[in-house]
Write a structure and sequence with these properties.
Oligomer: heterodimer
Structural class of chain A: alpha/beta
Order of helices and strands of chain A: HHHEHEHEHEHEEHEHEHHHHEHHEEH
Strand content of chain B: under 5%
CATH class of the domain at 5-264 and 440-489 in chain A: Alpha Beta
Order of helices and strands of chain B: HHHEE
Structural class of chain B: mainly alpha
Strand order of the largest sheet of chain A: 4-6-5-10-11-9-7-8
Helix content of chain B: 25-40%
Radius of gyration of chain A: 21 Å
Radius of gyration of chain B: 23 Å
CATH architecture of the domain at 5-43 in chain B: Orthogonal Bundle
CATH topology of the domain at 5-43 in chain B: Histone, subunit A
Number of strands of chain B: 2
Helix content of chain A: 25-40%
Number of helices of chain A: 16
Shape of chain A: globular
Largest sheet of chain B: 2 strands, antiparallel
Number of strands of chain A: 11
CATH class of the domain at 5-43 in chain B: Mainly Alpha
């Protein structure tokens, strides 16, 4: 028998699903190949907080047994995936990359992960992330930085950020440690890491994927989505993840479309909006060029290009940095050292002392910074000036999109203002770090579906992503435009293996 | 608006996060940098705008008023609920003495 273990890890979701169904290889062979890659890369990339090879094998055996019995294998049948460690997984440590939740073993399963297991997927492990999903470089994890498998082509050896907060997901995908991974996106946490690593990810319309069992950051923004290495793979996995859930009060009670079956890269009759406000002064040359490439590709696919205006774009980031910390300060109040997670009880401490000591020990600096900002903007006397004003500007940002979509079907923009930066380059300046999400945050504030697909490499040999933003509920339009880009970008670059 | 050390100490106390004097000193310029930046929102005319309450129009549902409508979130889960408690005692969450 030929050694397929190496080539198996090059396969994506659709190829694995179809190959297992056809009997070209077994699900167990696939799981073993990815388990081996996960183990071999752990020290160098730190993409996983814990690996769960036995879970991957167990699910694969179940799929192989189903196939032997002639049963249907499910949308994700035989596909092993990485699970961002923000999703509660039954009896498997779930940390949100925090000391606060170190050792926490949920006694329930998140809706999204349960749907994936029900669809035949298996779990390779829990992926590292920025602590409580707060960060853009995966440098805030209590369990250490995730390293991108990509290197600049300058001969240097600088360790690069995989993006954040879904940095374990993006690093693992680019390094072929998994064919797909879950991500969550509050202000760009699926799209920016995908762009940094030459991978693909979609944040669906707010409410498509249940938030039940996802460690909460900013509930009006948090949305789960798939990350993979192709648009088709994202479509398949999103079908498995999405759907109404009575346990999430903001879950959309809508049927899940068959996105994969309706995929089409034909853009004839479609209008693509180019937001003039995203052409910011000093936009990176390579990013600007990749945007122009994307415009040309969508024209080639038959689309008409129209200029649109999103006048409140410049206010999106400051709006986000009021609303997200405000919601975080409220959500993270639950970590009190009483019901689960860390407890720090100094000698002679009373209950209030215990709360304060526990939260001082359990939260990292960025999490504390955001809780304090959130507490301040919600405090008496400042609430209207900050929080209410931000909610009003958020309404204006959503109106901007609604008006723009009277003129176009989808919007094309860069995903991030630059390619991946080096670890440590932005950590000392929170504002500079926040600017990474300048193109990603507006769609989050408006709850719109948005995806990033690889566009090419910059002059340093690093991936750049293009972002497609769609109308609410129109994931299909986003996926189709993404496919049109993917078919023309022909992105085949992958990091040279050094780990 | 900007914060001083006393304000940061007050916020930290409201947020129940113990901070040292040195941490407060370091946080003052950081928080002021962020606050000065978000204050640009003040220049947006929002006099005729309602603050957003739901990003995607949706209605809040009521569940049926029955016990254990969803067994996952229903009752009889004491041991599961206490499984991760740092100090579970006699079927309760243990906390330091509250009443002197």
């Amino acid at each position: 028998m030929p050694d397929t273990s190496n080539s198996l890890t090059e396969l994506g979701v659709a190829q694995i699903r179809d190959g297992v169904a056809n009997g070209d290889f077994s699900a167990v062979e696939v799981a073993e190949a990815f388990n081996a890659n996960v183990a071999a890369a752990q020290e160098a990339l730190n993409a996983f907080i814990i690996a769960t090879p036995e879970k991957a094998i167990e699910a694969a055996q179940a799929t192989d047994a189903k196939r032997a019995r002639g049963e249907a294998l499910g949308k994700m049948g035989g596909v092993p995936i990485g699970m961002k460690d923000l999703f509660a997984t039954f009896d498997v440590q779930t940390t949100a990359a925090s000391h606060m939740l170190e050792g926490f073993k949920p006694q329930y399963e998140s809706t999204v992960s349960q749907k994936l297991w029900d669809a035949g997927a298996g779990m390779l492990g829990k992926l590292n992330l920025d602590q409580f999903a707060m960060g853009s470089s995966n440098e805030t994890s209590y369990f250490g930085n995730v390293i991108s498998p990509w290197k600049r082509n300058d001969g240097g050896n600088a360790a690069l950020a995989p993006g954040g907060s879904s940095g374990g997901s993006s690093s693992a995908l680019a390094a072929r440690l998994c064919p797909a991974a879950t991500g969550t996106d509050t202000g760009g946490s699926i799209r920016q890491p995908a762009a940094f690593t030459g991978t693909t990810g979609i944040k669906p319309t707010y409410g498509r994927c249940s938030r039940w069992g996802v460690v909460a950051f900013a509930s009006s923004l948090d949305q789960a989505g798939p990350m993979a290495r192709s648009v088709q793979d994202c479509a398949i996995m999103l079908e498995a993840m999405a759907g109404f859930d009575a346990k999430d009060s903001t879950s959309l009670d809508l049927p899940v479309p068959n996105w994969e079956a309706a995929l089409s890269g034909d853009m004839k009759g479609k209008k693509v909006g180019i937001p003039k406000e995203y052409r910011v002064e000093g936009l990176d040359d390579d990013v600007a060029k990749s945007w122009d490439d994307g415009i040309a590709w969508l024209k080639d696919a038959g689309a008409e290009i129209v200029e649109i205006s999103l006048p409140h774009t410049k206010y999106a980031l400051p709006t986000y940095y009021i609303i997200a910390p405000a919601e975080a300060s409220s959500n993270l109040a639950r970590y009190d050292g009483v019901r689960y997670g860390l407890r720090d009880l100094p000698d002679g401490a009373n209950l209030q002392d215990m709360y304060a000591a526990t939260r001082a020990a359990g939260f990292g600096p960025e999490v504390k910074r955001r809780i304090l900002i959130g507490t301040y903007v919600l405090s008496a006397g400042f609430y209207d000036a900050y929080y209410t004003q931000a909610q009003k500007v958020r309404a204006l940002i959503a109106q901007d999109f609604a008006k723009a979509f009277e003129q176009c079907d989808v919007i094309l923009a860069p995903t991030a203002p630059s390619a991946a930066f080096g670890l440590g380059e932005n950590v000392d300046d929170p504002l500079k770090m926040y600017l990474n999400d300048v193109f990603a945050v507006p769609a989050s504030l408006a709850g719109l579906p948005a995806m990033s697909v690889p566009a090419g490499l910059n002059r340093e040999g690093l991936p750049l992503g293009l972002q497609v933003i769609g109308k609410a509920f129109d994931e299909q339009g986003v996926l189709n435009a993404g496919l049109a880009l993917e078919q023309r970008a022909q992105f085949a670059a992958k990091p040279e293996k050094w780990w | 608006m900007s914060v001083d050390t006393a304000t940061v100490a007050k916020i930290a106390s409201l947020a129940r996060i113990k901070v040292s004097e040195a941490e407060i000193e370091a946080m003052v310029p950081e928080l002021n940098g962020i606050l000065a930046w978000v204050e640009q929102l003040g220049e947006v005319d929002t006099s005729n705008v309602e603050p957003m309450t739901a990003v995607i129009p949706n209605t809040l549902r009521l569940r049926e008023d029955v016990i254990d409508a969803d067994p996952l979130t229903g009752g009889n889960k004491r041991d599961a609920v206490l499984a991760n408690a740092p100090a579970a005692e006699h079927g309760f969450f243990g906390v330091p003495k509250v009443i002197e």
